Amino acid sequence: MLDFQPVTVKPRMLFISYPGQVHQVISSLGGAGWYVSFDSRLIDEPIRSTLDESVTEVLAVLLSQT
Predict the structure, then answer these.
(1) Rounded distance, CA 6 to CA 3, Å?
(2) SS3 for 18-29, per residue?
(3) How many CB atoms lie within 10 A of CB 17?
(4) Each residue of 4-28: pLDDT tens digit?
(5) Are 2 and 17 in contact (CB under 8 A)?
(6) Model pTM?
């Protein structure tokens, strides 16, 4: 769930959400993955501003196997 909306994460998917979103894993069928989070103070201001303007919605990108 992301902001109380159901989301299905598929194999080899890069899933990007923006700060402040509420998320919860409801079920996982043998899945494995990584969760990465960054403290915004570690990102230079010009780059942080660009990211804040660019990431206005959830991004889900399927990655290739190679």
Answers:
(1) 8
(2) CCCCCECCCCCC
(3) 16
(4) 888 888 888 888 777 778 888 888 8
(5) yes
(6) 0.55
Contact 7, 1 (CB under 8 A): yes
Of the candidates 56, 55, 51, 9, the one whose C-alpha atom is nearest the C-alpha of residue 34 is 9
Q: DSSP state, 50?
A: H
Which residues, in sequence order, are CB contacts of 7 under 8 Å at separation 6+?
A: 1, 15, 58, 60
How far apart CA 16 and CA 55 sit, in angstroms, is: 8
Q: Which helix (H) or strand (E) element contains residue 13? A: strand 13-16
